[in-house]
Design a protein that fits this description.
With 583 residues, this protein is α/β, with parallel strands linked by helices. The chain contains 21 helices and 18 strands. A six-stranded parallel beta sheet has the order 15-14-13-16-17-18. Strands 3-2-1-4-5 form a five-stranded parallel beta sheet, covered by helices on one side. Strands 7-9-10-11-12 form a five-stranded parallel beta sheet, with helices on one face.
Length: 583
């Protein structure tokens, strides 16, 4: 049996039967591309079992803490520092959690095929492992983790660890792996907001990317003296060679019997970003040269704690000196997606206060605030508004870490999403369809979903815009959403007519919110199937205002928004109240 790990024809065998690790291994340009007649089987995906997924995440959170503590100790030794674990978690958490989940997922994929097969062979590429060391956490997440070469390399390493596989290397000389972005063109967004007027700018509070609406941001900046400009970091000096001596020492002290932990100990030395080891001191120097508050009382963000290394370094330094760290909710799935949602858990753990869009779960750190993206905004429909606007995004086909956020996390789930949208469109009245559009924006340079829809519906219109769906919806009568997303909650907050086609196969909810979502079903905002949603649209299209403005729907919608997409009549006053007691 020949194992095929990625979508590459060179890895197929003409003599043996081919076993594909997943449906993402074959012809992924679009779903209607005719596959060549080949001798193959496709392995089942282990996380199609949602109970296993839930249990595995609990196990992986323990592994995350194990490696966090060990890396914190090692990095303190390497850098001759005594920083607490919280300091290192602010720096490492996004990369470390993503890395552990991605590697474990691939570990379990190989484990699954072992149960039913014994004799394997693999056609493989031979790489220089040092080329898999990312510059920073963002490069790993955005460029490496979903690339074919990184995945093929990890699968190969796991196969060697778990099985007696015969390897047939395609290349004699070791090759340079290719990632989603070319190394020379990949520029991580390192920046801090420096003071324009150092003598005027507030030295007590420092904020960056709060996801405020334009009006709220302007009012907030003026009232809190946040007059700053985006200062990008120059990374020319970040050329330190890999310190293999240091890297070989990583996790040596871990004496675990767990086979996965042992494997991860051997692999992680190649994938630890340089910014945390070799380039660490250069990053510290760049932060010190920035015109940012030296001793802020409060540091706030809604997104830069995830990807912006400069912000993370600055925050980590100030937090251990006493600065309070506040994180604002930035996504729609927080507070509603099926537990355990670890990113949410880690952010709340790291923050001194976590400002939600209205929900709380008993944790004292979670402060219900309001949906800051829509503050002061209104959606006024045009008199000639017509048709439906259907927002769609492309997702990675290779398995990822989004399996509990309300969005598809692999090709199986992406195909299910496509099925739902196609079934819905196929049953919509043609007169409505003629004036309807897809709203499409590709953030990941994968056109699988877009090409699939264009092939299936060549006459449908596609709007490619950076504007939000709610902003574009002024010209349309109704939004049709298919994900538990920010856009869905923003539409409800803005009182903008919307329906949501809900599929629990890629959008699972935590038990505590199911009753709230069921109430939206009763007033026909949420629909359990594409056919049911299409039937509703065809019947009510010309009376949508009557349906949407009914007292029963508005009452249910407003109650739901109070918990998950809260509106504020006085945003600045409410903000000041949670920041420092209404001052």
């Amino acid at each position: 049996m020949n194992i095929v790990t990625i979508d590459n024809d060179k890895l197929w065998s003409k003599r043996q039967k081919n076993l594909l690790l997943g449906s993402w291994c074959i012809n992924n340009k679009h779903r209607y591309q005719k596959n060549k007649k080949k001798n193959y089987l496709i392995s089942d995906y282990h996380w199609s079992d949602k109970l296993k997924f839930q249990n595995d995440l609990k196990y992986l959170y323990k592994i995350y803490n194990l490696f966090l503590n060990n890396l914190s100790s090692n990095l303190n030794t390497f850098h001759n520092s005594k920083h607490p674990t919280r300091y290192w978690e602010i720096l490492l958490s996004t990369w470390l959690w993503t890395y552990i989940v991605m590697v474990f997922d691939r570990w379990e994929i190989i484990k699954t095929i072992k149960k039913n097969n014994k004799n394997f062979s693999v056609k493989a590429f031979n790489y220089d492992m040092k080329n898999f060391t990312p510059s920073d956490g963002y490069e790993f997440i955005a460029s490496q983790a979903f690339s074919d070469d990184w995945n093929h390399w990890v699968y190969s390493k796991i196969l060697k660890s778990q099985t007696n596989t015969n390897f047939h290397y395609i290349n004699k000389k070791k090759i340079q792996p290719k990632f989603l972005y070319k190394k020379k063109n990949f520029k991580s967004d390192y920046y801090l907001l420096n003071s324009i007027f150092p003598f005027v700018d507030s030295k007590k509070i420092y904020s960056q990317n709060l996801y405020f609406s334009k009006k709220l941001q302007a009012i907030y900046a003026f009232s809190h003296k946040q007059f700053r400009y985006k200062h990008k970091m120059f990374l020319k000096k970040f050329n330190s060679p890999l310190n293999l001596k240091w890297r070989l020492e990583l996790n040596k002290s871990l004496k675990e019997k767990d086979k996965f932990v042992k494997f991860l100990c051997n692999l992680i030395k190649y994938n630890l970003p340089k910014i945390y080891l070799e380039d660490y001191k250069d990053m510290i120097k760049l932060i010190e040269k920035s015109k940012v508050p030296k001793n802020p009382k409060i540091i706030m963000t809604a997104s830069d704690h995830i990807y912006n290394e400069a912000f993370k370094f600055y925050t980590a330094q100030k937090v251990i000196k006493g600065s309070k760290y506040f994180i604002f909710q930035h996504g729609g799935y927080y507070g509603t997606c099926a537990l355990p949602h670890v990113r949410e858990k880690i952010e709340i753990k790291l923050a001194d206060k976590f400002f939600s869009w209205g929900w709380k779960d008993g944790n004292k750190k979670i402060i219900p605030l309001f949906l800051q993206k829509t503050a002061y905004k209104k959606i006024n429909k045009k008199n000639n508004a017509k048709g439906l606007i259907i927002p769609v995004l492309d997702y990675y086909l290779t398995p990822g870490t989004r399996g509990n956020t309300g969005n598809p996390s692999n090709k199986i789930e992406v195909d299910k999403l496509i099925d739902n949208i196609e079934l819905f469109i196929s049953q919509i009245n043609q007169n409505i369809l003629k004036v309807s559009s897809f709203k499409y924006q590709n953030f990941i340079r994968c056109n699988y979903l877009l090409k699939s829809f264009k092939f299936k519906f060549p006459n449908l219109k596609f709007i490619n815009s950076t504007k939000s769906t709610n902003e574009l919806s002024k010209s349309f009568r109704l939004i049709v959403e298919t994900n538990n997303s920010s856009g869905f909650l923003e539409a409800l907050n803005l009182n903008n007519p919307i329906i949501f086609i809900y599929d629990k196969k890629y959008c699972s909810l935590r038990k505590s919110v199911i009753k709230d979502f069921n109430k939206l079903k009763k007033v026909q905002i949420i629909h359990n199937s594409p056919a049911e949603a299409a039937k509703f649209v065809n019947k009510n299209y010309y009376n949508l205002e009557k349906w949407w403005n009914s007292k029963s729907l508005q009452r249910v919608k407003n109650n739901f928004c109070h918990k998950f997409a809260r509106k504020s009549d006085s945003p600045l006053k409410d903000l000041n109240k949670v920041l420092y007691g209404g001052k």
